[in-house]
């Protein structure tokens, strides 16, 4: 039997938003068929036009709001570009409602999996904007002029921007300085259509406690024309820049940086602090983007780990060792594993920088290393995992539980893989203790970070 959508493209409909998707889109149902609507909140009655009608779901654009949710923040016309660019897709919700939305997202995934686990209120920020310490901004030609900005969502059309709202204001200022220098020296922006031009992206990293800034040029060409002029211009206008790097990426890919980064001014790294430890951060290493909330996140992970000074800890997916070093102050020995070798080099350097000699770092896939450690007979007391969005490899869960740690602390940036992995741990004798604690690392966006404690049954 052919199933068809109960609506057609361009049809106008009226209804009340029932829910929000994990991306923060309003859900408007026609019979049981869901239409997803941007900038629409639960309880709001709207008139909308169908923009896409697929087999199982569709999309609609709000034409008129007949009632307004108390959770709504009116967004100024000039700021709507931030939502279009996917920078702040939740900007139309009060911050309090954003925090509740994140808590509910985890609760509803747990309920779907029939898991009776409590979720605490999301720990939010006092000032939930200008928090990001890193930007990778595309450079393109728009109306005959070199522009910096963000892509309109689901497209490669550049929306020129100067105020990115969620970035450290010093980063916004640096992007303008660099953009103007690129214009002055006539460097051609990259053109994706025929892969011509020079400058693909500008990368900026800013310390939170330190004033250090790193600027990176990601180019399509092997060389960076006018490198000395650019360095001179940047350092004259932005004296806190400690490092300028050049990265070549001449492949037709959405991955921003190529494999090799060369330092063309100053140091290879910038320095910043987290929970009192100093960190050297290189261009290619992962470093949490919201330093204020990261300190809260790590402190919760440390508290949940309940370390004693003889405990052996594994920190899987350790990046530049930020969690490892924070734990090393409370534990016997800490072993970190991370796949990016530059990050491991940074982690080793960071252990020395902080005079911590009870930490060891290995460059390997966490799933391989965990099975190696298990075969070697290692018996950790605590395992911390902080994987990327795809969550844990099942073989890692197998080796980790075989090693029988007392506790597993799971730092997650994706509640759906977290819930899947909690079930996999449960099959191997580990259960969640206490509530899951969401921490808002990404205000104004639907991203959800949380910390979960699992213990052996
Ligand atoms: C969410 S980050 C966490 C990093 C670190 N714990 C922190 O808080 O800064 C995930 C890290 O996992 C690394 N990674 C991704 N896949 C991996 C794998 N299969 N094995 C080990 N590390 C991996 C990434 O390079 C990244 O550094």
Summarize it:
With 457 residues, the chain is α+β, with helices and mostly antiparallel strands. It is built from ten helices and 22 strands. 26% of the residues lie in helices and 30% in strands.
Percent of residues in beta strands?
Answer: 25-35%
What's the name of the CATH homologous superfamily of the largest domain?
Vaccinia Virus protein VP39
Just give the CATH class of the largest domain. Alpha Beta
Rounded to the nearest angstrom, the distance between the terminal CA atoms is 49 Å
Number of E strands: 22
Which outline best applies? globular
Number of helices: 10
Give the integer mean of the pLDDT values: 95
- Measured as a percent range, the helix fraction is 25-40%
The Cα radius of gyration reads: 24 Å
According to CATH, the fold-level topology of the largest domain is Rossmann fold
Pfam families: TRAM, tRNA_U5-meth_tr
Domain TRAM: 6-64
Binding site for S-adenosyl-L-methionine: 288, 317, 338, 386
GO molecular function: rRNA (uridine-C5-)-methyltransferase activity
3D structure, described in words:
- InterPro entries: MeTrfase_TrmA_AS, MeTrfase_TrmA_CS, NA-bd_OB-fold, SAM-dependent_MTases_sf, TRAM_dom, U5_MeTrfase_fam.
- The strands form 4 sheets. Strands 15, 16, 17, 18, 19, 20, 21 and 22 form an 8-stranded mixed sheet that branches.
- This protein has 3 domains: 12-72, Nucleic acid-binding proteins (OB fold (Dihydrolipoamide Acetyltransferase, E2P), Beta Barrel), CATH 2.40.50.140; 134-274, OB fold (Dihydrolipoamide Acetyltransferase, E2P) (Beta Barrel), CATH 2.40.50.1070; 290-456, Rossmann fold, CATH 3.40.50.150.
- A hairpin with a 2-residue loop joins strand 6 (134-142) and strand 7 (145-151).
- The longest helix is centred in the N-terminal third of the chain and has 18 residues, at 95-112.
- 26% of the residues lie in helices and 30% in strands.
- The model has no long low-confidence stretch (mean pLDDT 95).
- The protein is an alpha+beta fold and 457 residues long.
- The chain is built from 10 helices and 22 strands.
- The structure holds S-adenosylmethionine.
- The site of S-adenosylmethionine has 20 residues, from helix 6, strand 16 and helix 8.
């Amino acid at each position: 039997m052919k199933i068809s959508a109960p609506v057609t493209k361009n049809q106008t409909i009226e209804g009340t938003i029932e829910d929000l998707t994990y991306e923060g889109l309003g859900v408007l149902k026609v019979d049981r068929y869901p239409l997803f609507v941007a900038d629409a909140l639960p309880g709001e009655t709207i008139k909308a036009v169908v923009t896409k009608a697929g087999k199982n779901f569709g999309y609609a654009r709000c034409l008129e709001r007949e009632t307004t949710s108390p959770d709504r923040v009116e967004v100024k016309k000039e700021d709507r570009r931030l939502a279009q660019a996917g920078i702040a897709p939740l900007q139309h919700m009060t911050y309090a409602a954003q925090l509740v939305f994140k808590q509910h997202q985890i609760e509803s995934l747990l309920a779907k999996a029939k898991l009776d686990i409590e979720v605490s209120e999301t720990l939010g920020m006092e000032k939930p904007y200008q928090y990001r310490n890193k930007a990778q901004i595309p450079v393109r030609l728009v109306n005959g002029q070199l522009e910096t900005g963000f892509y309109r969502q689901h497209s490669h059309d550049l929306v020129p921007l100067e105020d990115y709202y969620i970035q450290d204001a010093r980063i916004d200022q640096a992007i303008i300085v660099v953009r103007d220098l690129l214009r002055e020296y006539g460097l051609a922006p990259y053109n994706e259509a025929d892969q011509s031009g020079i400058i693909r992206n500008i990368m900026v990293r800013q310390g939170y406690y330190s004033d250090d800034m790193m600027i990176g040029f990601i180019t399509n060409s092997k060389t960076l024309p006018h490198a000395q002029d650019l360095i001179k211009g940047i350092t004259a206008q932005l004296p806190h820049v400690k490092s300028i790097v050049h990265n070549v990426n001449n492949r037709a890919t959405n991955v921003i940086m190529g494999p090799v980064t060369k330092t063309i001014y100053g140091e290879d790294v910038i320095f910043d602090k987290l929970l009192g430890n100093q960190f050297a951060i290189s261009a290619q290493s992962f470093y949490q983007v919201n330093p204020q909330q990261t300190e809260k996140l790590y402190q919760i992970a440390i508290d949940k780990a309940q370390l004693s000074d003889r405990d052996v800890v594994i920190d899987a997916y350790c990046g530049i060792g930020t969690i490892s070093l924070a734990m090393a102050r409370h534990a016997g020995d800490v072993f970190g594993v991370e796949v990016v070798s530059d990050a491991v080099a940074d982690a080793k350097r960071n252990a020395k920088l902080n005079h911590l000699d009870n930490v060891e770092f290995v460059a390997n896939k966490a799933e391989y290393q965990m099975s190696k450690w298990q075969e070697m007979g290692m018996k950790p007391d605590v395992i911390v995992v902080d994987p990327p969005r795809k969550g844990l490899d099942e073989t890692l869960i197998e080796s980790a539980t075989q090693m029988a740690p007392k506790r597993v602390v799971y730092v997650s940036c994706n509640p759906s893989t977290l819930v899947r992995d909690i079930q996999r741990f449960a099959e191997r004798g580990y259960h969640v203790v206490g509530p899951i604690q969401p921490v808002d690392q990404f205000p104004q966006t639907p991203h959800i970070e949380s910390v979960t404690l699992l213990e052996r049954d």
